[in-house]
């Protein structure tokens, strides 16, 4: 089977030369192990951090190792009594057509929900949205919530959860097509195109009552524009800073508003809060099954397409959750 390894650490933007496609033999299973054929691989922004040697929230991964990543697939051989051949499982088997697990990081999947959703709205990105909304921002009915990267895996769920709480929800996204989707399909009250060149004025027009809660996925100009609209005691859930992935630092120009408006900022890493996952995934699964949470996917075809799709994700070429379909 084939796998993709980290061939070289990126200097600046990620390039195809940072990856290498390899063919490896299917290993014999030891006692307790499970062999999984992956159907989908998840591509996520945190992988950029793993590729670097520099300190990030995600620890760095070794050169020549399989690129890390979440997967969903089917058990094809098992020497573990908890997993039977044919069962569908989620795992962290990486950029690889197959993977061996000792069962510890596997979870069985509810087959009533589309398999790929467990990598998006009912997976880690959905949980990031759930945690930020429920455990940090807790926006009340009628409050205004702003979320950046609004059409993406996390942002799309953030906005829909906030709408379900009765909030006015304003997205920020790149380009008119993404903005139209966020309003027309996801039901946000408004969405501002940060690429149009009038972000501050457009966000001001979309938030007539100011902003009470910010779910930040991007940083830079998006965060500054949202900060400029904050009401007193507004809360900020700092989930991601994707605008700064290739830079050393990402300054906050409106930092004085943290004081003037008495804002609270909380950064979080969703995998540090596993105690909330059973409840959160249960709720998200029900909302997806009931079509109260909608999502969209960008699907690359075949493992060899993964590097280019990942580079595209870091440039906003994805539209919704970025996946690689393996079979
Ligand atoms: P998305 O599906 O939202 O895809 C990434 C999107 O980011 C792109 O489509 C693009 O959207 C936007 N983007 C990329 N570069 C820039 C840029 N320079 N300026 C502005 N926008 C940019 O990804 P996810 O939903 O998976 O992740 C969203 C954020 O959440 C990331 O920052 C990620 O690191 C973070 N995250 C954090 C977690 C945590 O535990 N803290 C867990 C999961 C995700 P557009 O075209 O609209 O610009």
Query: What proportion of the residues is helical, as a percent range?
Result: 25-40%
Small molecules held by this entry: NADPH dihydro-nicotinamide-adenine-dinucleotide phosphate
Based on the structure given, which CATH architecture of the largest domain is correct? Alpha-Beta Complex
Query: If you average the pLDDT, what whole number results?
Result: 96
Determine the CATH superfamily of the largest domain.
Medium-chain alcohol dehydrogenases, catalytic domain
Described by strand count, sense and barrel closure, the largest sheet is: 7 strands, mixed
What number of domains? 2
The structure class reads alpha/beta
CATH topology of the largest domain: Quinone Oxidoreductase, Chain A, domain 1
Distance between the termini: 12 Å
Shape: globular
CATH class of the largest domain: Alpha Beta
Defining key terms:
single chain; 327 residues; alpha/beta; Quinone Oxidoreductase, Chain A, domain 1; Rossmann fold; 2 domains; seven-stranded mixed sheet; six-stranded parallel sheet; 9 helices; 15 strands; 25% helix; 25% strand; binds NADPH dihydro-nicotinamide-adenine-dinucleotide phosphate
Can you characterise this structure?
With 327 residues, this protein is of the alpha/beta class. The chain has two domains: 2-120 and 295-325, Medium-chain alcohol dehydrogenases, catalytic domain (Quinone Oxidoreductase, Chain A, domain 1, Alpha-Beta Complex), CATH 3.90.180.10; 124-271, Rossmann fold (3-Layer(aba) Sandwich). Helices cover 25% and strands 25% of the residues. It is built from nine helices and 15 strands. The protein has helices at residues 46-51, 124-137, 153-164, 176-184, 199-206, 221-227, 256-260, 277-289, 306-314, and strands at residues 2-6, 19-23, 34-42, 71-78, 88-91, 98-101, 107-108, 144-148, 168-173, 190-193, 211-216, 230-238, 264-267, 297-301, 321-325. The strands form three sheets. Strands 3, 4, 5, 6, 7, 14 and 15 form a seven-stranded mixed β-sheet that branches. Strands 10-9-8-11-12-13 form a six-stranded parallel β-sheet, sandwiched between helices. Helix 2 packs across helix 3, helix 2 (124-137) packs across helix 8 and helix 5 crosses helix 6. The longest helix is centred in the middle third of the chain and has 14 residues, at 124-137. It is globular, with a radius of gyration of 20 Å. The model has no long low-confidence stretch (mean pLDDT 96). The structure holds NADPH dihydro-nicotinamide-adenine-dinucleotide phosphate (NDP). The site of NADPH dihydro-nicotinamide-adenine-dinucleotide phosphate (NDP) has 28 residues, from helix 2 and helix 3.
């Amino acid at each position: 089977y084939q796998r993709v390894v980290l061939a070289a650490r990126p200097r600046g933007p990620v390039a195809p030369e940072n990856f290498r496609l390899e063919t490896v033999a299917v290993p014999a299973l030891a006692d307790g192990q499970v062999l999984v054929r992956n159907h989908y691989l998840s591509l996520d922004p945190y992988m950029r951090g793993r590729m670097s040697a520099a300190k990030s929230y995600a620890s760095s991964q070794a050169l020549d190792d399989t690129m890390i990543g979440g997967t969903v697939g089917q058990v094809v051989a098992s020497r573990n009594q908890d997993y039977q051949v044919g069962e569908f499982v989620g795992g962290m088997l990486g950029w690889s057509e197959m993977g061996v697990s000792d069962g510890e990081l596997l979870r069985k999947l509810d087959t009533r929900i589309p398999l790929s959703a467990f990598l998006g709205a009912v997976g880690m990105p959905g949980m990031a949205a759930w945690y930020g909304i429920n455990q940090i921002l807790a926006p009340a009915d009628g409050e205004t919530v702003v979320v950046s990267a609004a059409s993406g895996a996390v942002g799309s769920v953030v906005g829909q959860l906030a709408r379900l709480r009765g909030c006015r929800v304003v997205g920020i996204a790149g380009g008119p097509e993404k903005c139209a989707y966020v309003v027309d399909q996801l039901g946000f009250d408004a969405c501002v195109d940060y690429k149009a060149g009038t972000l501050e004025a457009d966000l001001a027009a979309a938030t007539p009552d100011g902003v009470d809660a910010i779910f930040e996925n991007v940083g830079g100009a998006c965060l500054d524009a949202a900060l400029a609209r904050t009401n007193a005691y507004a809360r900020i859930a700092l989930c991601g800073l994707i605008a700064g992935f290739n830079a050393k630092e990402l300054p906050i120009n409106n930092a004085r508003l943290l004081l003037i408006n008495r804002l609270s900022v909380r950064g979080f890493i969703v995998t540090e809060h596993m105690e909330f996952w059973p409840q959160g995934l249960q709720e998200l699964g029900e909302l997806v099954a009931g079509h109260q949470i909608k999502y969209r996917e960008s699907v690359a075809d075949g493992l060899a397409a993964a590097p280019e799709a990942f580079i595209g994700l870091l440039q906003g070429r994805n539209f919704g959750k970025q996946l690689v379909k393996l079979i």
